[in-house]
Every structure is written in C-alpha cells, then in structure tokens.
Amino acid sequence: MPRLIAPFSRPVTRAGSLSRGLRPSRTSIATVAVASAVAVLCGPTSMAEAAALPGRLESGRPSVLMINVDDLAATDIKHMPNVQRLLVRQGTTFTDAVAPTPLCVPARASLLTGKYAHNHRNWSISGANGGYKGFTGRRNTLPVWLDRAGYRTMFLGKYLNGYGKGRERTAAGEPGWDDWQATIDMSTYNLMSPKFNNNGTIQSPGLYSSVALQNRSVKMIKRAGTNAGGKKPWFLWVNYVAPHAGGPVEASDPRRRYPRQPSLWLENTRPMPADKGRFRHLELPKTPDMFYAGPGQVTAGRPYTASQKRVMRYVHQQRIEAAQSVDRAVARTVAHLKSSGQYRRTVIIFSGDNGYTTGQHNRLGKLWESSQASRIPLVMVGPGIPRNVKVGSTVGNPDIATTVAALGRARPGRAQDGVDITRVLASSVKAGKTLYRPIPVAAWPTEGGATTKYRGIRYGRYTYVTVSSTGTPVLYDRAVDPYETRNLARDPRYAKVVAQLRTIEAKYRSCSGSTCPKTYAATLATPSPSRS
C-alpha cells in the first residue's frame, strides 16, 4: 500500500513550484512517515482547519468569486498578463487540473453538483442526456446549498447549452440563485451583442460579451457588498464565453476568405475589435504533438493540409486575442474587490470548463483524452491561499463544487464525488511534493447517446483509456512523453502498469460519493515500467 498523507496540516509559506518538487526537511519527512493510513479529503472545512493555512479568514466564511472561461486551455493563460499578475503570482495554480469529461455541459454540471458525469448523467450538449433540458435535479445544486447556508448567490453569463430556448427564457431564474443574469442561447455565442435574462427581463446591452459580463459582475459584487451591512457572504459564478467559437462572422473569417473551400472552414471565434490583430505574429506552439498522428495514435485526426495548417494558426491567434477581453475583465473585477474593501475576505477561483486543441494530435476542439483537451487552468487566490505556488497533484472540476461548498460550510444535498482541494493544497505544500490520486475520465458523443467514446483513468504520470468502439487501449506515460505522442499500451515494458491501471479504472468506473477516490498518496500505487 502506498503511504498516505494526513489530509490537512500546516503548510510551508514560501513560494515555489511544488510540481517540480520542493525538497522536504528531515522533520517533514518524519512527519510523512507517521502519517495517517487513510486521508479522506471530503467534508466542510472547519475554522480550525482554515487557520492551518498561512493566512486566516477575516470572517467565519469567505465570499467566493468563481470565474469560468469557456474553452480556455491551460496553456492559454500564459498569454493573459493580468491573470498572471493578479491571480497566478498571488495565489496557487493547480498544474494538473482536468475536466474528467472535457465538454461544456458535463463540465458545468459537475461544477453545479460535485459529481462525475457518469453520476449526474448530463453527458452531452443536447439529447436525452444533454444540455439544459437533460439536466435533472436543478433543486439540488451548489447554489441551493449555499443559499440555505446563508449566502447571497449570483449567476452571470453562459449556463448549460440550450438554456433560453423554452419557457425559461423569461423565467425569473434557476433554483437557488438570488440574482440571475444568464445569456440566452444562441445569443450566447453572438460575442458582439449577447442577450441576457436579467431575473426574468430580456436585455440586450449591445456590448462585446466580455465587457458586458465585466460590467455586470462589478455591479453584482457592489450590490452584494452592501447586503446586510456587508456582513453576509456571497457567491458569484461568472461565465465568460470568449474564447469559445462565436460570431458574427467577420470578413477575415475562413468562411468569408475561402467561400469555395469548405475544408478550410475551421471553427473560429471573434475577438473584441480593440484586440483584433494584436497576436498576428503568434505562431502555433512548436510541440511534438502538433499535427502529429504517428504509430499507435488511435484517437488522432486525419492529417491537415498546408492550407488548413495556415488557417489553424489564424484560429489560434483569434482565440488568444479573444481571451484578452477576459484578461482585462479579471483586472477590473479584482480592482473593484480591492477598492470596495472586499478583497481580503474573498476567495477567487479561476478556471476553464475544458481544454482545447488547435492542431495537437491533428484535432481542433475538445472531448479527447489528451492533456491539451482535458487540462483546465485552475488558480485559487484569497485568504489562506499560498502565493505564487504551483501544485502538481491532480484535481478535477467536481472538486471545485465540493470546495466551494466546504468554504461556505454548506451541506451538499448530494454525496460528493469530489474533494475539498484546500486540503489537497495544504497536504501537498506540507509534503513538499506532488501527491497522487486517480481521476476517472470518460466522454460521450456531443449530440447525445448513451455509449461512451472512451473511458479510463488519469493517475499521476499516466493516462489510460479504452476506445469504446474498438476496445483499443491507450496508455500515455507523461513522465517520459509529456506531449503524449506514444501509445505504450502494447509495450511489454508497461504490461504491469497497464494491468494495474485497468484494475484501478474498473474499481472507480461507476464510483459515487464515498466510493470515489478521495485519498492522495505520497507514491504511485502503479509500478514504474520494466527496464527489460
């Protein structure tokens, strides 16, 4: 059995990259040696536990600002200077945060429930198990739990795909939300002028999407700050749409530039006019996975032509340009928190809903097992959160919902599949190294359907999945192949690794609540590959 780390202990306060492995002192090594045999990382965070972090909350429970950015890959935030300056350097970045089902709706349903997609069963964008109509149990979600715990709850931006097409278009809002300002599909993807359901009233501000969301978020925080004399904590979930694909189509869009060449009509976004052309010299990443479909790459796409590669570079440029409006919105929101005196009692959680590929493995989009498609940016800033720290321990987006509930000491109405990542943070910092926990991963077709595309496990250095249609196994060892260019599932040196990962995957495939993986180990249970 691997040695497990005590779930919540006083971390070191120095900054550094934990993913590279801070060397623990002899004292900390001894502490690890006598750690508890079981470290269950769930349940609400008590005041005593909160005090174990380097800072203390000014009040019993913090306000929580959760910023979600649609289709923002983990690698994109290096191009966002305000996010780097105000969040990354002021907080903790989880460098192996993933969307277990990397698609908009399942990811957002996990953020609402703390459940993996195989449990909330909102697998797709549309269909019986997809989108807004497919999401059941809306009266038992994170905002409902926080509302009952005494929080003012506010929603802004994109909700689940398909929202706003039926009676809900003019309804006062969804259960649990005190202030509801959701964009209405399909205007959600009109980046130049989305429409909002503002607590039952349809509004069209005529502003670029990120600017409209930025302005409204500041107003919502301002109102919440005066609520009950400023003493009542609040929860605001802001959902930015850029850099998700959107329109209206402009003259430089591939559809307009190449009207007679449909093969070049790659899905594209539209940046704010002020950002158009800012990254015209930005090239695609020169990584080994770019346009790669070598031996064993059973989930890679068809090769791109030279013309398609040129269009892909433009798509990548447009995405980074569109993200600049979100970057400025983050700066303005943080500035308001500081000027209004709320910054010191607010935890900020910045994340994406899924990753995104722009040519990696010959793919454009998401819903693949590769790290570029599944990894999300995840940064936490606030009282008690170490500054300028990177943690390599794997977390999933169900953990974010569990964490917010724990911060608010709210009682979830569903058995949580996720864990409180503030405890993961504390344990990782104390150990001075990456800790390991398996995360079950799976994907379903985007337009509904009950049959998985793939299913597997992400565990430490390994990603192991089985392609459902063929039964073909895929194994990546990111320790030796970080860009996942070699499928090692048939490699004899990895036979024992595959056998154990298959066992772990089977154990957690249908997990729910307490049967989902909740412990972090100091060492991998899976052996290293054989040298023979």
From TrEMBL:
Organism for this UniProt entry: Nocardioides albus
Source organism, top-level taxon: Bacteria
Name the record gives this protein: Arylsulfatase A-like enzyme
Pfam families xrefs: Sulfatase (PF00884)
Lineage summary: Bacteria, Bacillati, Actinomycetota, Actinomycetes, Propionibacteriales
Sulfatase N-terminal domain location: 77-407
Annotated InterPro entries: Alkaline_phosphatase_core_sf (IPR017850), Sulfatase_N (IPR000917)
Coiled-coil regions, chain positions: none
